Backbone:
């Protein structure tokens, strides 16, 4: 490739130019933008789309997954997914021959690098567009690997994840295009006779990838948490190996299948994106992270392995973007809309049985109660009212399961079943036990409504541990000053993905903003309507901050993409 | 602080608005820009400036350094600097009480954070402007701590370092200002009656610092390598502790003194920038890196401690920007200007006795010789001609010392004295021994002209080690294909800060660009004039790439600044 010759425009660049420009402008503005409609309505996705998606999902069941095409496999077929709703999926996936796969990835890199940022971005958009067309199929795949209820699986794993993917693509594109391709540098000077004699050089700046990137998927949000790293690495020129969670392979297998199909259609090697499912007991994420070819790792999962990845990566000059765990916090001070507070919090605790990395866990309430539009409400009454709101929301099994979904693993089930023991340990009270819900369609599913345990603010030893799943802690404080101090200190030390405050006082809200800034966590204030602290909107809300131990990065800011590529200059006199 | 109220503009913002805008535009364009004149002429810096600078430096000698004002000291005075030109400096510096110093840094942070990015940037510009006024004093301080010759000390440690500082400041400013301070987010929606009912939220984005930043200075370029990290951290809101190299304290002490003076003048705590000189044997860099308050480390120095910092940092979620060591490479293929090649290379090898992190070490030359405008020149003849060019440049002691400066430490002296042994080990030849030069003004200085050792390309075991100082290796290859392959592979594995190629063939230049892209190192092509491979220009050339083991970052790109701050959102319905 001669740098002086501009590469011919790729057809996908023409096709997606306006999407790229529009999405880039939206990301800079951080106001509302969404490309992929979140409504599963036939008016949006077309008549028959829902049925076709279900049929496509059903066709995948009890079969070898063939969508990946010609892969670098060692001939093994692996896969033991069982739906949290009961049935085994019966799907097997080709296991990679790692040496061959990493060689193929490296071989594919130069052509992808030299295609340039805009072509890469356009190819990535084409991938997301085609993934969007399979949103119903994806919804079933996600529902039956994560336990999400169907509509949530459609939205969060479909359009919302697709919007996050597009956000990541344009963030990477903009970042690469901030460096000019070529400049003439002219330094004023004079020769020995005093005549102007500038020094002129041409400098060409070439974006180069880091090397092979690995995405380690999680069980609960395989696409929503997987796409930002996948597309951030791919758009910046790096081949990507996607290592799905063994219990949530299918959503990423479908995604990788689309990546490979589009890459091949676009004239690139399909091996720029490969799926690396684990053989039983293989621990493939660790094996991959220890390979010298791997220069970037994106990870969502438990803190112990996340910490290992970070240390291992540092020893190898590998970039590691890790989202781990934390103690999401709500400070309740006062409100002029108690019903709104209770309804909003009940929904946040209930959605997907509290199995979101953004679900609140620690609710600080003054032990002397709070001022509300219904008069002063005591700590105990607040707990009782919140329990009642949860009960109302989840009281009907058939309706409840559409919010709760199913519990994803035994850890969550143990947490939900252990409230009495936990209350005893904490010297507290079970305000609301986690109710067992029977799923009308899937009797084998273990479904749990949220429970609440109250305890004193002195029991940091208990409430600074993440208790993942449908469990909230009502923590009695000496007052809002203590609530805010505990909020700041515990999040600083233990991390959080989200925080919320309820107050009618501007001074308290200001103090909460300062505490959130000190703790390094985003703050939602007085949410009483249809927006929930668990939710972030692509192009506007950052998911995570990278400023507390819960995550070292955010979706999606410049820091998430700027270091995934490097710039190599060549300069010469002209 | 209420986020709704814009802070009143700081006087320094008005004063430096145009500098900030101009420098930001220059950085985006990456064409020529320099704010601080590199000529030490009285026409530029004023009559008497040189004499006043010398007098200011002399006044510092044999004294306790008082310029830091009221510091958090434990009462010890430390400092054992000895000029590479001979005399002891006799200067002592107040040793920090680390607990008090880190507490003071943390206490100073909120006001600095809440001042906003533009005020911080303007205060930083004021610091650099005042440092510029002390460029002659700084030149003597740098000359007598690093061994640089005077004019180089003036330029590299003065205006060039100041330009790099300004570059870092505007890079940090631009990055922070990419995030809007506040937006209204409006999601379209309809109520149950089908009437438009958008969801509206105000979202405020607040830039927050990481925490205390540490800059670990090096012996050879304390300001040039120190300022980018110092100002990148400071402009993004982080207090900075500057830990100078024990043999090069004064240049950073002067710099920190100006920082503290300006910060206090601007109404902020002087403790936002503190000097942390080591007590003998203290190993303060390690102590600092292990403090939980320290969230960012910028380091220039040896690879062993650099690797320790990176691993230690990863375990703590600390950001580490490290420039370590490498094997800078020149590929000689052919030329139409042999004299120009030889003169340029001789100068690059000679400048500061090869003690730059950018000095070439490995020169690959085909063993069958190269095509030139003077006919085919054999490998041996090329070596002899280069030796002659070095000899001509450094033959006169009085003129030579103005290029060579003095050797900075015993390691360099041992390398310069060990060429015969090295040649024997490598099965090669001493093409030019490193000549001992007598400094006419400083007879105690150990001054060495460059030496050259030839060896075969098979002796990777020798030439992939960094041999810091006035030593170049002429490496005989089977041809340019092997030269480029060795270049790519050795730099990929061992790192490099710079690379150069000489060729008349566009195909070879293209191949060299591809090899440089694969190796992740910047390439200078056919330099035969007044630009040298050792030199990079702020605002245009990236120093380092972060893409090979020599350094994990570059001066200055977005990745160097984007992660030094984080963004905390607060959102509410409006």
Residues:
């Amino acid at each position: 490739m001669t740098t002086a010759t501009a590469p011919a425009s790729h057809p996908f660049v023409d096709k997606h130019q306006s999407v790229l420009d529009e999405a880039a402008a939206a990301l800079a503005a951080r106001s509302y933008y969404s490309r992929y409609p979140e409504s599963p309505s036939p008016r949006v996705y077309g008549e028959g789309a829902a049925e076709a998606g279900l049929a496509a999902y059903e066709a995948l069941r009890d079969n070898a997954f063939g969508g990946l095409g010609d892969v670098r496999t060692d001939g093994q077929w692996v896969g033991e997914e069982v739906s949290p709703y009961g049935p085994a999926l019966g799907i097997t996936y080709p296991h990679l021959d790692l040496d061959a796969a990493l060689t193929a990835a490296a071989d594919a890199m130069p052509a992808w690098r030299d295609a340039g940022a805009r072509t890469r971005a356009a190819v990535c958009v084409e991938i997301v567009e085609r993934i969007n067309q399979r949103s119903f199929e994806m919804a079933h795949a996600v529902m039956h690997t994560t336990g999400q209820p169907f509509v949530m699986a459609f939205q969060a794993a479909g359009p919302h994840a697709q919007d996050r993917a597009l956000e990541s693509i344009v963030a990477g594109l903009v970042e690469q295009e901030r460096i000019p391709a070529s400049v003439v540098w002219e330094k004023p000077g004079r020769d020995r006779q005093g005549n102007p004699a500038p020094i002129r050089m041409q400098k060409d700046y070439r974006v180069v990838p880091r090397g092979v990137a690995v995405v380690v998927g999680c069980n609960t949000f395989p696409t929503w948490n997987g796409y930002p790293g996948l597309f951030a690495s791919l758009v910046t020129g790096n081949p990507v190996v996607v290592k799905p969670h063994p219990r949530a392979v299918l959503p990423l297998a479908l995604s990788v299948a689309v990546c490979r199909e589009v890459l091949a259609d676009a004239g690139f090697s399909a091996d720029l994106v490969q799926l690396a499912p684990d053989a039983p007991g293989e621990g493939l994420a660790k094996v991959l992270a220890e390979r010298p070819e791997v220069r970037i790792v994106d990870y969502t999962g438990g803190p112990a392995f996340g910490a290992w990845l970070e240390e291992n990566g540092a020893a190898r000059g590998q970039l590691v973007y890790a989202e781990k765990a934390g103690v999401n916090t709500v400070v309740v001070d006062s409100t002029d809309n108690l019903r709104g507070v209770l309804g909003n919090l009940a929904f946040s605790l209930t959605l997907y049985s509290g199995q979101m990395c953004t679900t609140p866990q620690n609710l600080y309430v003054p032990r002397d109660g709070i001022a509300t539009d219904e008069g002063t409400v005591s700590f105990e009454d607040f707990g009782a009212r919140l329990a009642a709101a949860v009960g109302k929301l989840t009281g009907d099994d058939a309706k409840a399961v559409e919010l709760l979904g199913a519990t994803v693993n035994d850890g969550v089930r143990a947490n939900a079943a252990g409230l009495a023991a936990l209350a005893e340990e904490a010297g507290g009270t079970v305000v609301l036990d986690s109710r067992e819900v029977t799923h009308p369609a899937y009797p084998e599913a273990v479904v749990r409504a949220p429970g609440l345990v109250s305890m004193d603010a002195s029991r940091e030893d208990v409430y600074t541990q993440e208790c993942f799943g449908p469990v909230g802690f009502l923590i009695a404080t000496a007052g809002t000053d203590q609530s805010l101090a505990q909020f700041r200190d515990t999040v600083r030390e233990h991390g959080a993905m989200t925080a919320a405050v309820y107050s009618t006082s501007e001074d308290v809200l200001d103090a909460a903003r300062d505490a959130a800034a000190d703790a390094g966590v985003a703050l939602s204030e007085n949410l009483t309507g249809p927006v929930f602290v668990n939710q972030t909107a692509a192009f506007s809300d950052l998911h995570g901050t990278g400023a507390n131990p819960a995550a070292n990065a955010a979706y999606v800011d410049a820091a998430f993409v700027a270091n995934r590529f490097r710039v190599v200059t060549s300069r010469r006199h002209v």
Remarks:
- The radius of gyration of chain B is 25 Å.
- Confidence is low (pLDDT under 50) at residues 1-6 of chain B.
